[in-house]
Structure formats: C-alpha cells, structure tokens
Amino acid sequence: MTQYSIQTIPENFKMTAFGVTFEDFNDWAGNAAKTAALKAEITENGKLAELLALADGQVYQINYSVHGKPWRGFGVMGEFKLEGTVVLDFLAGDYLVVPGTGADKDSLADEITGKVFGGMLQQITDYKYVGPGNSTFVKPAENGKYYGEMWLRVKKVGD
After folding, report:
1. 148 vs 114: CA distance, rounded Å
2. Which CATH number belongs to the domain containing residue 32 in this structure?
3. Phi then psi for 113, rounded to 5 degrees?
C-alpha cells in the first residue's frame, strides 16, 4: 500500500484559484480536456503567473465542490482578489498526506490523485475523506524528478 501520513492543520485556510465546473463527474476524458484547456488558457494569458506572483509561487491543483458540482482548478495558498478566481475555504483538521515522485511534472498531480481515488482511500479504514476539497502540489526534486503531495481533509473513524 502507498505510504501516507496524517498532518493536523490547526486553523482554517483559503486558496484562490481559477477553475472549471464538471457537469458529469464520471466523464474522465471530457473533464481532463476541460482541465487541460483551462491550464493552457491561464498559462498563455499570464493569469496564472499573475496569481502566483501574489502568493508564494507554488501552484496547486485543487479539486472542490462548488455549488454542489465537481470543480477542478489551479491556484495558490491564500486569499487574493483577481478577476476570474474563486476563493475556497479549507477547514482545520486532520489531513491525509499522500506523497509521490515522477519524471513528468505535468502528470504527477493526476497520478497521485488517481492513486488516492483509485483504491487507496478504500484501503485506509481508520480515516474517511470528508472534504470539502483537496489539493496537490508538485515541485522539482533531485535527479530531474519531481515530488508531489496530495492533501485531503479526513476524520478519524469513530470520532
């Protein structure tokens, strides 16, 4: 089983992001295309760089529920006002942290997400995912590889 840890975040925090809403959560190919188109658009028009300059420079891939619909976006830690963004609330509590490494920076976040939702969560019986969202970051590591982590808010079963 994939390694993970539990980290406690003592205070609520916010993330600011550009994103897209999915009408059908199970349309994997369509949702991947919408996500890729969004990332290309905000990269090419400079909006993502503008947002990154307001924060610490680390981009996060964020999955969230916005108005009861699945939503995916790209953003930063903190609350900022920038046209076209939304501010998302992440709640204090225990977070499941799942690390991963890979050679492809652009696919590592999706690989970790697939690992977590593709069966790992079902294998962890002492915690359950409670949301309302999750985030993944990727950064350069050693030897041309990349390191990433997915953070999901969880609750200990039985609490």
Report:
1. 13
2. 3.20.80.10
3. -60, -45
**Closest by CA position to 58, among listed 35, 40, 46, 76:** 76
Average pLDDT, the chain: 93
| Statement: the pTM of the whole predicted model exceeds 0.70 | yes
- The DSSP letter of residue 158 is T
Buried/exposed 90-119: b ≥16 CB within 10 Å, e otherwise? beeebbbebebebeeeeebbbbbbeebeee
First to last CA, the chain: 24
Which residue range forms the structural domain that includes residue 46?
A: 5-156
Residue 159 has pLDDT above 70, yes or no: no
Query: What is the DSSP annotation of 48-91?
Result: HHHHHHHTTS--EEEEEEETTEEEEEEEEES----TT-EEEEE-
- Region 36-63 average pLDDT: 95
Of the candidates 91, 87, 79, which has an alpha carbon nearest to the alpha carbon of residue 8? 91
Q: Which of 109, 62, 110, 58 is nearest to 86 (CA)?
A: 62
What is the Cα–Cα distance from 123 to 106, expressed in whole angstroms? 27
Rounded to whole angstroms, the Cα distance separating 75 from 58 reads: 8
Looking at the structure of the chain, the number of domains it has is 1
